[in-house]
Amino acid sequence: MAVLNLLARARATVLALAILLPATTWAQSGGLEYAVKANYLYKFGPFVEWPASVFASASSPFNVCILGDDPFGAALDDAVKGQTVAGHPVAVRRLRLASNNPDCHVLYLGRSKPQKTLEVLRLLRGAPVLTVTDEQQGVSGGIVHFVLRDGRVRFEIDAGAAQANGLGLSSKLLALAIPHTKGGG
Q1: What DSSP element (H or E) covers 173?
Q2: For the domain that residue 167 is a member of, what is the CATH number?
Q3: Position with higher pLDDT, 104 vs 8
Q4: Where would I find the H helices in 62-158?
């Protein structure tokens, strides 16, 4: 009887490993994490008030931009397909260099960008752009900062930085954020 129990436990362990191993590999590759972040990037839009001047026309796209290497791959393009923000179709733009007028509503600053994060954030200070940084990319200092807490993607918000960029943030968005900690990038 003890041998049968031992065999049953061994089979259960092998089965559990077979099920969990692909999920662990998926999580370690960042696939699920970046799919969640990709969804957040455009979903921040309805909770932010931009000056009317940021849209050239009623049909202008709502631009979600990635500066530097893109950790999202197709996940971001798939997430925004067919989506709108305030009646504007969501478009993804990938940038190699930042400018003080990037034509972006949301700008994600990845790790391997050609310019230093603080320089980009200084360049965009006062511009109506929601800057997003990422703890996993070794970058901080944006208006929104992605962090991992208890295995979940969360975000901090620097409301002062948003105000300095002329952006209004919904109380609903602020309520979803975790407390902001000061830090440099």
Answers
A1: helix 171-176
A2: 3.40.50
A3: 104
A4: 74-80, 117-124
* 137 torsion bin: left (phi>0), alpha (psi -120 to 50), beta (else): alpha
> Are residues 85 and 62 in contact, defined by beta-carbon separation less than 8 angstroms?
yes
Count of the separate structural domains present in the chain: 1
Q: Rounded CA gap, 72 and 31, in Å?
A: 8
87 token code pair: 């009646």
What is the spatial distance between Cα 124 and Cα 117, in angstroms, rounded to a whole number?
11
Cα distance between residue 26 and residue 18, in whole Å: 13
Q: Which has the minimum average pLDDT: 5-19, 36-50, 63-77, 157-171?
A: 5-19
Nearest to 66 by CA among 46, 96, 30, 33: 96
Q: Is residue 77 part of a domain?
A: yes
pTM of this structure:
0.79
% of the chain surpassing 90 pLDDT? 59
> What are the helix (H) ranges across 103-153?
117-124
